[in-house]
Write a structure and sequence with these properties.
The N and C termini lie far apart (84 Å). It is built from three helices and six strands, in the order αββαββαββ. Helix content is 20%, strand content 29%. It is an alpha+beta fold. Strands 1-2-6-4 form a four-stranded antiparallel sheet, with no helix packed on it. Strands 3-5 form a two-stranded antiparallel ribbon.
Length: 146
Protein backbone atom coordinates (compact mmCIF):
# COMPACT_ATOMS: atom_id res chain seq x y z
CA UNK A 1 0.00 0.00 0.00
CA UNK A 2 1.55 3.23 -1.08
CA UNK A 3 5.17 4.02 -0.49
CA UNK A 4 8.11 4.89 -2.71
CA UNK A 5 9.03 3.34 -6.05
CA UNK A 6 11.82 0.93 -5.18
CA UNK A 7 14.26 2.26 -7.81
CA UNK A 8 14.45 5.66 -6.14
CA UNK A 9 14.72 4.42 -2.59
CA UNK A 10 18.24 5.10 -1.36
CA UNK A 11 19.53 6.25 -4.79
CA UNK A 12 18.50 9.89 -4.83
CA UNK A 13 20.67 12.14 -2.68
CA UNK A 14 19.17 14.43 -0.08
CA UNK A 15 17.92 17.70 -1.47
CA UNK A 16 20.88 19.71 -0.16
CA UNK A 17 23.27 17.54 -2.26
CA UNK A 18 21.49 18.01 -5.62
CA UNK A 19 23.91 20.74 -6.67
CA UNK A 20 26.88 18.42 -6.10
CA UNK A 21 25.15 15.60 -8.02
CA UNK A 22 24.47 17.88 -10.99
CA UNK A 23 28.06 19.13 -10.93
CA UNK A 24 29.45 15.57 -11.06
CA UNK A 25 27.11 14.65 -13.93
CA UNK A 26 28.10 17.80 -15.82
CA UNK A 27 31.82 17.13 -15.28
CA UNK A 28 31.51 13.56 -16.54
CA UNK A 29 29.51 14.65 -19.60
CA UNK A 30 32.06 17.33 -20.51
CA UNK A 31 34.97 14.92 -20.01
CA UNK A 32 33.27 12.29 -22.17
CA UNK A 33 32.56 14.87 -24.89
CA UNK A 34 36.20 15.97 -24.80
CA UNK A 35 37.37 12.39 -25.46
CA UNK A 36 35.24 11.89 -28.61
CA UNK A 37 37.21 11.15 -31.81
CA UNK A 38 39.25 13.94 -33.35
CA UNK A 39 41.10 12.98 -36.52
CA UNK A 40 44.29 14.88 -37.27
CA UNK A 41 46.50 14.71 -40.31
CA UNK A 42 50.03 14.46 -38.98
CA UNK A 43 53.34 14.76 -40.74
CA UNK A 44 53.80 13.94 -44.40
CA UNK A 45 56.76 12.51 -46.27
CA UNK A 46 57.24 12.37 -50.03
CA UNK A 47 59.73 10.11 -51.85
CA UNK A 48 60.38 10.24 -55.57
CA UNK A 49 60.22 6.71 -57.00
CA UNK A 50 61.09 7.61 -60.54
CA UNK A 51 59.65 9.66 -63.37
CA UNK A 52 56.50 11.35 -62.17
CA UNK A 53 55.65 8.71 -59.52
CA UNK A 54 55.94 9.60 -55.82
CA UNK A 55 55.32 7.69 -52.59
CA UNK A 56 53.46 9.83 -50.07
CA UNK A 57 53.21 8.94 -46.37
CA UNK A 58 50.51 10.76 -44.40
CA UNK A 59 50.08 10.19 -40.65
CA UNK A 60 46.46 9.81 -39.59
CA UNK A 61 46.12 10.24 -35.83
CA UNK A 62 43.25 10.12 -33.35
CA UNK A 63 44.66 11.45 -30.04
CA UNK A 64 41.40 10.90 -28.15
CA UNK A 65 40.13 7.88 -26.20
CA UNK A 66 37.18 6.92 -28.41
CA UNK A 67 37.85 5.37 -31.83
CA UNK A 68 36.08 6.80 -34.86
CA UNK A 69 34.14 3.56 -35.36
CA UNK A 70 33.44 1.19 -32.48
CA UNK A 71 34.41 -2.46 -33.09
CA UNK A 72 30.85 -3.75 -32.73
CA UNK A 73 29.49 -1.10 -35.10
CA UNK A 74 32.13 -1.98 -37.72
CA UNK A 75 31.38 -5.68 -37.29
CA UNK A 76 27.66 -5.12 -37.89
CA UNK A 77 28.19 -2.49 -40.59
CA UNK A 78 25.82 0.02 -38.98
CA UNK A 79 27.91 3.20 -39.31
CA UNK A 80 29.29 5.26 -42.15
CA UNK A 81 32.95 4.54 -42.90
CA UNK A 82 35.65 7.17 -42.44
CA UNK A 83 36.52 8.86 -45.73
CA UNK A 84 40.02 9.90 -46.82
CA UNK A 85 40.15 12.25 -49.79
CA UNK A 86 43.13 12.91 -52.08
CA UNK A 87 42.69 16.02 -54.17
CA UNK A 88 44.93 18.00 -56.44
CA UNK A 89 45.30 19.20 -59.99
CA UNK A 90 46.80 16.55 -62.26
CA UNK A 91 47.03 13.87 -59.54
CA UNK A 92 46.36 10.21 -60.15
CA UNK A 93 46.53 7.76 -57.25
CA UNK A 94 48.16 4.58 -58.54
CA UNK A 95 48.00 2.50 -55.33
CA UNK A 96 47.18 3.01 -51.66
CA UNK A 97 47.54 1.01 -48.47
CA UNK A 98 47.92 1.32 -44.70
CA UNK A 99 51.08 0.90 -42.66
CA UNK A 100 50.64 0.35 -38.90
CA UNK A 101 54.18 1.34 -37.94
CA UNK A 102 56.09 3.58 -40.34
CA UNK A 103 59.46 3.08 -38.63
CA UNK A 104 59.27 -0.71 -38.99
CA UNK A 105 58.12 -0.39 -42.59
CA UNK A 106 61.03 1.93 -43.45
CA UNK A 107 63.57 -0.40 -41.79
CA UNK A 108 62.17 -3.53 -43.45
CA UNK A 109 59.80 -2.78 -46.31
CA UNK A 110 57.26 -5.56 -46.68
CA UNK A 111 54.32 -6.21 -48.92
CA UNK A 112 51.27 -4.49 -47.46
CA UNK A 113 47.67 -5.13 -48.45
CA UNK A 114 46.48 -2.54 -50.93
CA UNK A 115 43.17 -0.75 -50.73
CA UNK A 116 40.83 -2.62 -53.07
CA UNK A 117 38.64 0.16 -54.46
CA UNK A 118 38.03 1.53 -57.92
CA UNK A 119 38.31 5.23 -56.97
CA UNK A 120 41.48 5.66 -54.90
CA UNK A 121 40.94 9.39 -54.51
CA UNK A 122 38.12 8.53 -52.05
CA UNK A 123 39.39 5.84 -49.67
CA UNK A 124 36.77 4.33 -47.35
CA UNK A 125 38.09 3.15 -43.98
CA UNK A 126 35.49 0.72 -42.64
CA UNK A 127 37.23 -0.29 -39.40
CA UNK A 128 37.81 3.25 -38.14
CA UNK A 129 40.85 4.98 -36.75
CA UNK A 130 42.10 3.59 -33.46
CA UNK A 131 42.15 5.71 -30.37
CA UNK A 132 45.58 6.81 -29.14
CA UNK A 133 47.54 4.42 -31.37
CA UNK A 134 50.78 2.91 -30.13
CA UNK A 135 52.40 3.14 -33.54
CA UNK A 136 51.39 5.96 -35.86
CA UNK A 137 49.22 4.52 -38.62
CA UNK A 138 50.10 5.90 -42.00
CA UNK A 139 48.36 5.91 -45.31
CA UNK A 140 50.69 5.79 -48.24
CA UNK A 141 50.04 6.38 -51.87
CA UNK A 142 52.02 6.44 -55.02
CA UNK A 143 50.83 9.54 -56.76
CA UNK A 144 51.53 10.35 -60.37
CA UNK A 145 51.51 14.08 -60.92
CA UNK A 146 53.18 16.91 -62.76
Amino acid sequence: MGGVWKKFQGRVPPRFMNEELCHRNMAFSLYQADEMPLIRMGGTEVEKLGGDVFRVFVDIVNPRVAPTIMARAAQNGVVRPDLLLVDGKGLEVVAAGFVDNKAVYKAKPTVIPLVDQKDLKRILVRNGTRARPRGRPSCWSRVRGR
